[in-house]
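Tokens as discussed.
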């Protein structure tokens, strides 16, 4: 395993400040915004906006791009859908060959990385980081085969976490429905 700076492993840049591209007559795009990147690597809840069509290719997601929120809590996700527009205050991390995006995504959520971001980041009420600070992050990276194995294992654990959370939410709704049933249909 070797310690490396993220900037040596990837091209890193910010998403698009899309407000300048809003256009009533433009094409409709799915836009990744802050709320789209969830804890534990989930990507959903996009804005659908009409934008001018002259957006540079770099602002559209590629399969296996890694996206990181720049404001706290610095959530990270590995993208599995191409063609989404990435908004500003989200770092786009395009890994070079020989780096597994799933593994790097999990690595970027680790406590050691959060500690580095805290030390490098701002001391404002809502902490945030910059592209410069993200580029300087130091990661401990094994060989590619080991990265792939860990990435698959950690993805499986994340899937279990998501399923467990869905079950908890279902149980909460069931409990609420049972209690509401005791009250009868008075809410009509």
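Sequence:
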């Amino acid at each position: 395993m070797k310690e490396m700076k993220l900037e040596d492993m990837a091209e890193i840049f910010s998403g698009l400040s899309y407000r300048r591209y809003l256009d009533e007559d433009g094409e409709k795009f799915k836009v990744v915004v802050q709320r789209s990147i969830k804890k534990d690597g989930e990507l959903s809840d996009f804005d659908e906006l009409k934008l001018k069509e002259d957006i540079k290719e770099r602002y559209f997601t590629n399969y296996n791009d890694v996206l990181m929120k720049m404001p706290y809590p610095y959530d990270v996700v590995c993208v599995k859908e191409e063609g989404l527009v990435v908004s500003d205050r989200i770092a786009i991390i395009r890994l070079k060959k020989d780096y597994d995006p799933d593994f790097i995504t999990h690595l970027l959520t680790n406590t050691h990385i959060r500690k580095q971001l805290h030390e490098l980041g701002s001391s404002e009420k809502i902490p945030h980081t910059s592209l410069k600070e993200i580029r300087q992050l130091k990661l401990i990276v094994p060989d590619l085969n080991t990265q792939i194995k860990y990435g698959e294992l950690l993805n499986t654990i994340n899937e279990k976490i998501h399923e467990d959370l869905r079950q908890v939410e279902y149980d909460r709704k069931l409990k609420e429905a049972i209690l509401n049933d005791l009250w009868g249909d008075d809410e009509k």
